[in-house]
Amino acid sequence: MGHHEFMEDRVPALLSRLDAIAASLSRAPHAMALIGVGSVGTDLDRLDAHSDLDFFVIVEPGRQAAFIEDLTWLDRAATISFSFLNTRDGHKVLFEDGIYAEFAVFDPAQLAAMPVEGGRIVWQAGGTVLSGLQMHAPDPSTPASKDFLLGEALTNLYVGLTRLRRGERLSAARFIQGYAVDQVVRLLPFVEPPAPAAEDPFDGARRVEQRFPQVAHHLPRFVQGYDRSAESALAILEFLEANFPVNPAIRQKILEAAEAVSKDMKGG
Questions:
Q1: Does the CA dihedral 21-26-31-33 come out positive or negative?
Q2: What residues of the chain score a pLDDT lower than 50?
Q3: 92: closest CA among 106, 102, 100?
Q4: Do 100 and 94 contact (CB within 8 A), yes or no?
Q5: Could you give the CA distance from residue 20 to residue 268 in angstroms, rounded to a whole number?
Q6: DSSP 218
Q7: How far is CA 67 from the centre of its chain?
């Protein structure tokens, strides 16, 4: 099968793999349920050829370690070609046929205490083991204010540029093209009304191009690469100035730091 045909068949293959995992768990002692999350949870309309399998396995209390340490139950569903323990609760897995998955194993009490966005029960033993379990979205915290986000973005730019002056290029890239951009993304609803694309409560960068199509064209200028952190910082500052009241003192410090970086690079 060619790559194109594989991609076309991938969506039904993902759902079929989830069903196969459910069937395997149904034969595993102490397994209680399988819950699909993400694009194989309640948001099945987001499932596409580039999706992964994200799921939770619910087991009887005290049985988590057995399911985490021995993946026979998963290998029965499809042959595993690579896996590693990425958290204490689960693995990242690549199946032999190219399907990629991430999963965690919990007992019902642990799951009830966790924020689960869009969880969908795929299988449960006996049909009632999860009755009354409240899967819930992340607790709504007080949204960060515009002033807070703007202040964070501006200070991230300044700190990043000072790191760049010390020759700490990786740290500078993280502050400017990572942390500052994260704050800019959180500011975008103040610039453009979000389009009706699902927001990921755990990762604001997800689907940002679909949610803010009018301002998304600025993003390449904000993330210009390892050797262009100063240029990225100036582009971010320009965007912030165009859309928000930027404090002139921190603006001047950012401009001075960027100019100093330029002189350093020229050896003058």
A1: positive
A2: 1-7, 131-134
A3: 102
A4: yes
A5: 65
A6: G
A7: 25
Provide the residue ranges of all domains of the chain, joining segments of one domain with +.
3-127, 146-266
- CA-CA-CA-CA dihedral for 48, 201, 32, 83, to nearest 10: 60
Query: Tokens representing 154?
Result: 């501006």
- Name the nearest CA neighbour of 157 among 246, 266, 265: 246
Q: What is the pLDDT of residue 3?
A: 43
Side chain identity, residue 47: L
The pLDDT value given to residue 200: 52
List beta partners, residue 100. 94
Q: What would the pLDDT profile of 194-240 be if each residue is shown by its tens digit?
A: 766 555 555 555 677 878 888 888 898 999 999 999 999 999 999 99
Local structure of residue 94 (DSSP, 8 states) = E
* Pairing, β 100-106 against β 53-59: parallel
Give the N- to C-terminal CA distance of the chain in Å, as an integer. 59
**pLDDT tens, position by position, 235-265:** 999 999 999 999 888 899 889 989 988 887 7
Reference 261, options 158, 186, 125, 192; nearest CA is: 158
Give residue 58's identity as a one-letter amino acid code: I
d(CA 186, CA 268): 37
CA distance 155 to 228: 18
SS3 211: helix
pLDDT at 163: 86
Phi, psi of 215 (to 5 degrees): -105, -5
**What pLDDT is recorded for position 97?**
87
Q: Which CATH class is domain 3-127?
A: alpha beta
- The amino acid at residue 10 is R
Task: Output DSSP code: residue 52.
Answer: -
